[in-house]
Amino acid sequence: MTDSSVIAFPADHPALAGHFPDNPLVPGAVLLDHVIAVVAECEGCRVSGIRSAKFLRPLRAGESCRLQIGRRADGALKITCSTDAAKVMTAILECTTEKRAARE
């Protein structure tokens, strides 16, 4: 199974102001945080661990990337973020589903 969605950070995103003036880049932590939120929504799970995360090239303000989510045989999620030109980030995330207690 592979799900995908598009991620973009507008030029006025608050995290970009200090990274870097006149050449805004999306900080890796901000990208990873956004990916985790999208994974939770798309997969209906909670990310419980990050096995690996590799940032391969900068993502610039206004540049979009495609997030692809695949499930590995061991249950972990394989994440790839790519622009048209190249991969931006790869990650392996652990994900758990939480059953909600029924209200009586």
Fold topology:
Elements: E1 2-8, H1 28-43, E2 46-55, E3 64-71, E4 77-82, E5 87-96
Antiparallel strand pairs: 1-3, 2-5, 3-4, 4-5
Please provide a written account of the structure.
This protein is α+β, with helices and mostly antiparallel strands and 104 residues long. The protein has one domain (2-96): Thiol Ester Dehydrase, Chain A. It is built from 1 helix and 5 strands, in the order E-H-E-E-E-E. The protein has a 5-stranded antiparallel beta sheet, with helices on one face. Strand 3 (64-71) and strand 4 (77-82) form a beta hairpin. The longest helix is centred in the middle third of the chain and has 16 residues, at 28-43. The model is unreliable at 99-104 (pLDDT under 50).
In brief, what are we looking at here?
15% of the residues lie in helices and 39% in strands. By secondary structure, the chain is α+β, with helices and mostly antiparallel strands.
Order of helices and strands: EHEEEE
CATH architecture: Roll
Q: What oligomeric state best describes the polypeptide chains here?
A: single chain
How does the major sheet shape up?
A: 5 strands, antiparallel
Q: Label the overall shape.
A: elongated
CATH superfamily: Hotdog Thioesterase
Q: Ranges with pLDDT <50 over ≥5 residues?
A: 99-104
In which order are the strands of the major sheet placed?
Answer: 1-3-4-5-2
Query: If you average the pLDDT, what whole number results?
Result: 88
Count of helical regions: 1
Kindly provide the radius of gyration, computed on alpha-carbon positions and rounded to a whole number of angstroms: 15 Å
How far is the N terminus from the C terminus?
A: 36 Å
